[in-house]
């Protein structure tokens, strides 16, 4: 996991440095970002440490049972009444940047980690997909634009905001970043 994080951070700094000179040229280019996060809590209703079967009761009283895999470290720390917290986040960013002649492409990064031996169970995982497309055509009258994707396909889209088409140019790159992250943790029940 540490190696993947190091690679990700290295790429981030290399990219930031490379883009720093282009910042002024890209300030007027369209960009957008949206993030949605949902947090759900459940109470451990039943647990069988030998069979690893766990039953959780959700906020509306519904229950779900499952068998925890061997990957679920520290299950022995969990007791009836403990609280399971799950946080799920999805985000998308779209940035139009001045074209640099690079070809469309795509990449993916997955990072995951879990708590240390003897701690309460917990896991965090993130998946990020980055897609670079190139602007092939802009039609201001029809409010449409065409992008060439990583596999060479050209797809036409309708612009949500026609003003954004005036800020882009044929040959620009469109960088789309899709990120999903989940964190699960177990907290000891509070003693009343």
Walk me through the structure:
Helices cover 15% and strands 50% of the residues. With 192 residues, it is α+β, with helices and mostly antiparallel strands. The radius of gyration is 23 Å and the shape is elongated. Strands 1, 2, 3, 4, 5, 6, 7, 8 and 9 form a nine-stranded antiparallel sheet that branches. Residues 1-24 have low confidence and may be disordered. The protein has one domain (2-187). The two termini are 39 Å apart. It contains three helices and nine strands, in the order H-H-E-E-E-E-E-E-E-E-H-E. It has helices at residues 2-20, 23-26, 162-167, and strands at residues 31-48, 53-57, 63-67, 83-97, 105-114, 122-139, 144-148, 154-158, 173-187. The longest helix is centred in the N-terminal third of the chain and has 19 residues, at 2-20. A hairpin with a 4-residue loop joins strand 6 and strand 7 (144-148).
């Amino acid at each position: 996991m540490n190696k993947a994080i190091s690679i990700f951070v290295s790429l981030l700094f290399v990219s930031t440095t490379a883009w720093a000179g282009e910042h002024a040229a890209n300030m007027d280019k369209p960009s957008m970002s949206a993030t949605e996060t949902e947090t759900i809590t459940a109470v451990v209703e039943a647990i069988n440490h030998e069979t690893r079967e766990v039953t959780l009761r959700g906020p509306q009283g519904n229950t779900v049972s499952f068998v925890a895999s061997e990957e679920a470290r520290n299950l022995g720390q969990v007791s009836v009444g403990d609280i399971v917290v799950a946080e799920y986040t999805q985000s998308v960013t779209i940035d139009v940047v001045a074209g640099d002649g690079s070809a469309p492409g795509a990449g993916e990064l997955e990072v995951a980690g879990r708590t240390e031996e003897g701690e309460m169970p917990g896991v965090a995982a993130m998946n990020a997909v980055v897609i670079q497309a190139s602007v092939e055509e802009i039609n201001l009258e029809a409010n449409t634009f065409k992008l060439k994707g990583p596999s060479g396909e050209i797809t036409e889209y309708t612009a949500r905001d026609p003003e954004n088409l005036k800020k882009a140019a044929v040959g620009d790159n469109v960088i789309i970043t899709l990120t999903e992250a989940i964190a699960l943790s177990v907290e000891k029940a509070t003693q009343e």
